[in-house]
Amino acid sequence: MRRRWIGSGSVLAFLVLIDASAGAHDSWISSWAFKNHANEWCCGEIDCAVVPESGVHPNGVGYELIFNNTEVVPYDEALPSMDGRYWRCQRPDGSRRCFFAPRPST
Hints:
Elements: H1 2-26, H2 28-31, E1 48-51, E2 56-58, E3 62-66, E4 70-74, E5 78-80, E6 86-90, E7 96-101
Parallel strand pairs: 5-7
Antiparallel strand pairs: 1-6, 2-3, 3-4, 6-7
């Protein structure tokens, strides 16, 4: 009986994780139909991911993203994040399509 509960719990946890990742992708980024400066849709098929706050360093010109390679996103290319987190959307080749940043506090 205990194995059945553990197995059911594992399946439930897996489904919640799938739903959470799909929900993040299908939430505000796609529903608000954001476009970048080149007029491309920000959200494609599974192309947006949260960037940890520790990997984002604002500097004098933009947001310095530190992960595999360092990339600087100019402030005027950053779009407003609706959930207060940093997001980077990419093209199939890995280049940045859109970047979302939390709105500055006033």
